[in-house]
Amino acid sequence: PEQAARMKKLQEQEKRQKVEFRKRMEQEVSQFIQATGEPRRRFQPMNKIERSILHDVAEVAGLTSFSFGDDEDSRYVMVFKKEFAPSDEELEAYRRGEEWDPARAEERRRLRELAAQQEEAELESGPAPLGPPNDYKDKYRHLIGSDAAKAAARTMEANKAYGCVPVANKRDTRSIEEAMNEIRAKKRLR
């Protein structure tokens, strides 16, 4: 009895802490929503339960939220206003543990575009890309012939009787109750 009482007290305490934590997060999130010059906010690292509470609060407030960080102790939540939702590149940067720098990302994107254009120009000017040295069908021609597959495809027809139940199988005129009683009687005999 004493242990049960202690457990109950602990559970109530945990529940109270969760409720308090949720209220605190709701206040912080509403402050964040009202802060005009702040498109995103990074929260302190927190445990799994606290992160799930914060994700829930953010969702209710109409915000986008993501968790970042590798190990359980250092995982943290970032909350974004909908109009500043992060791009895939931005999310990748946070996952790698880097700060997001839009200017640097734009520079990277420009370099990638330039490289793609150069590659395209080389492909146009250079020799045509070579295909495989031989056609795989040639390898098996002695087995399948040259037009066996086409002929087989043409002759394929659906089985008209597929899915049909013979009339003899449909002739059960018993009611459900009668059928159930018969099954029960057979079980009793066993």
From TrEMBL:
CDD domains: R3H_sperm-antigen (cd02636). Residues 92-113 have a biased composition (Basic and acidic residues). InterPro entries: R3H_dom (IPR001374), R3H_dom_sf (IPR036867), R3H_sperm-antigen (IPR034068), SPAG7 (IPR017330). It comes from the Eukaryota. Residues 91-139 are annotated as: Disordered. Residues 19-82 form the R3H domain. Signal peptide: none annotated. GO terms for molecular function: nucleic acid binding. Pfam families: R3H. PANTHER family: SPERM ASSOCIATED ANTIGEN 7, SPERM-ASSOCIATED ANTIGEN 7. This is SPAG7 protein. It comes from Pycnonotus jocosus.
